Every structure is written in C-alpha cells, then in structure tokens.
User: What shape does this take?
Amino acid sequence: MGVDMEKMEMLNVSMAASLDMSDGLLCVGATSGILVNDGVSCSSLDTLVCEDRSEKEAEGQCVGEQREDEDTAWDGARVRELLEEVSERDTLGVSEVELVVEQVLTFVNALLFKLHNMRRHVRHDMWSNADKIRDACTACGADSVHDMVAWELEHNIPWSNSGREGLLWLKRSLSFIRRVMVNEYLQPELPTPRNVRDAYNDRLACCHDWIGRRIVRMYLGKIPPRDEILTHLQLTKPELSDLELLS
Assistant: This one.
C-alpha cells in the first residue's frame, strides 16, 4: 500500500506545531541529506547554509567554530528549563527558538567535541533547520513558530525547505542529543560509543533507509571511548550528575 503523503505531511506538521518533546512522539531522526522512510528528503546542508557562513567556515571562522572556543558551562538546570518551555508552550518566538538551539548546543558542546563527523553533522543540521525556521518567520512576518506553521498551511507552502520541515527536524535533533546524554547517565557502565549508538537506534534509525543507516553507523564507529573524551575535556573526575535533570 502506498504512503498517503498528504496525511504524512499533516502528521509531521501536527508534531511540529505541538512542540511536544515527549519520548513516545520523537522516535524519528535528525540527519540531513538522507532519504527517510516516509519519503521526505531533508535537503543537503550545503544548500541550506548561506554563502557568507560557508565562506567563513572555509576560513575556520564560522559561527559554530567560534562557539567551540567559548565557555561551555555545564548548566543542566538551564537546559532543563529550556526543554520544558519548548514542551509546554504552543507559541514560541523566533528569538526564543534561537536561544534554545544556542543554549542546548553550548551545553552539549563539551561532551560532543570529540565525536568527529557525527557531532559536526548533527550540529550543522540543527543550525540549518534553525535558519529554515527563521527565514520562514521572516517571510510571513510571524512573531511565533505557531503563527508561521499556520501561515504556511494556509498558503499551501511546499513541505520541502519549509519552516515546518525545519521545525520538525530540529525537534528530532534535540531528541537524539537528549537521548545520548540520558544514556550516558543511566548506563555509565557501557562505553560511550555504545550509548551513542543506542541513542541513534532509538531515535534516528527508524527514519533512514539502509544507506542512511550505514553512513551514520560509519560515523558512530569513529567515536572515541569515554576516557579519551574526558581527557580531552581535562576532567580528572567526570561530573555527569546534571544529566539526571534530563532523565
């Protein structure tokens, strides 16, 4: 039986507009540029990042790289507050969406610094989708994500590269990162690469075709062990208690 794409899109939009961060809902993926099982293809990151950002990145000066040099405080309480706000509110301003993305990325930046291609891919994916949301809100003059979604539906804006698509994929990225951190807290006896792989299988694998899963798992195979990550962070004693706030 063929997939009813109209119903699938309406389901995706409903998920995006609700801003429901519950575990049961977000069992779908975050990786861009890979065909997903529902037939929707998330556009290539290269076509989403503006030219000036690409040029700066080529010079090692993009905004994301600058953030790596900034203080990465482990503020678990603040991240929990942001995630709860996203979960409970139907109306979220564009600036607030950007704040959530920035704060969450800052929070996990230290932990994910050594995750190589997987980390870089997810980070760029999140910022690309934040750009989609901002551009869509600017185009329609919306003051909130909810208004943007309503406007796009009213005007029959195509799903591809829409603000709705960006919102849904951004939520999926946040869900994957949250699951990585929760796994690290709940399963400290397991190697970090195993915890990240379990998070992928739980959150992203169900959205990708076999090619996509093979590519991502190739990235996962290059994740260093926890001791190497902690050594890089110059921690003599890991302080992961804040992850309890996200469990």
